[in-house]
Specification:
2 copies of one chain form a homodimer.
Chain A (H helix, E strand, L loop, with lengths): L11 E5 L4 H12 L3 E6 L2 H14 L7 E5 H5 L3 E4 L3 H10 L1 H4 L3 E4 L4 E4 L2 E4 L7 H8 L4 E4 L6 H5 L7 E7 L2 H12 L4 E5 L6 H18 L4 E5 L6
Helix pairs in contact in A: 4-6
Chain lengths: 230, 230
Amino acid sequence: MCHAGAVSEPSTIGILGGTGPAGSGLAARLASIGHTVVIGSRSKYRALETRDELAERWPDLDDRLACGDNAAASDADIVVIATPWDGAAGVAQENADRLAGKIVISMANALVRVNKEFQPLVPPRGSVAAHVQAAVPRCRLVAAFHHLPAAELGEIDHPIDSDVLICGDDPESVREVSAIVDGIPGCRPLDAGQLSNATAIEAFTAVLLQLNVRYKTRVAPRMTGIADAS
Amino acid sequence: MCHAGAVSEPSTIGILGGTGPAGSGLAARLASIGHTVVIGSRSKYRALETRDELAERWPDLDDRLACGDNAAASDADIVVIATPWDGAAGVAQENADRLAGKIVISMANALVRVNKEFQPLVPPRGSVAAHVQAAVPRCRLVAAFHHLPAAELGEIDHPIDSDVLICGDDPESVREVSAIVDGIPGCRPLDAGQLSNATAIEAFTAVLLQLNVRYKTRVAPRMTGIADAS
């Protein structure tokens, strides 16, 4: 799917918490479409381990995968926060000066499992994304990637059949992230409005996980009624 | 799509608040697949007006469309509450004795529009559906139909291309509602677990409305990754 004016130039993208399932899956996926990815972690050694594992599995990606601590990853042009939700605002704040002025992508969902139920938590500012934005007011926060199954993200030989809901208070930043998403085979970026919508987008992930358990699969959402994301 | 054991027998379905866009659209849709529908309203005269309008537009449905006040509609086998969200628990409570023991379907979303944003409200018990269940503890509450565009519901000559997320605390009731949804052309029922999930399902409607405005369309969700809702 190619939208006029929406083709993204290859960027350098840092991933804080890039050693977890979502972060490492996203790292491989973004590298596979031409971006240079800096995998970050609290421990630069763990980041190196993840980097080498990915490069071993996909040698073609080797020269597009870098690594370092979270500060090093924060020096990239665009930064994704892929830590568990309760670490997202903290790691952003620790690197606030490096993140100032940049697009920062929040993808975490605040969820707990209570017995057999996945329950969304509502952080004090309404969403993990809003919490991160408040922690680093000078960054341009964009919420995206909440509904993509982590395992599917990392299976770069297969397209991901999903719409990606993207929201944020700076329309230009939303457009830039949309262009990146548009480069991922099978993914369609959808402009979901302002950052306030992150609350419902994050919470809805609990429903998707519930469906995963019930149907023994990994679901991802598609919106009918939108012919093309122009 | 036909799932073994999931074919619904025609039922008599009452719709409280059946004169609004969602209620009258659902009335036409359910009558079109063989159910007898009792359109209810605070005013039995308004219910009659809606009934006659639908029967005039679709003469084939005439003998499957009945009407009355909300109490009369509450006497049906299965009852849908299609009032605006802030009237749902009240109308349920007024008819509590009639609804006792029955499947009651809550479809309302608590939303407000603030400037250009649709914002989900969180009712005291977490969802409109949970509020209705609390108002009529003896009913078997099922939440469904939140994401279907009202106008599309009423366009019975066209299938609705959507999954319908269904949740509730009584699995047998969820199955019965799933069977009804399965009879609607284009709709696939999905078991979304317990009633707690209604919170995120209702809130997510705000995101869908945002997409409708942004893309000048009416969206509905589909889940990829589920081959068949068995």
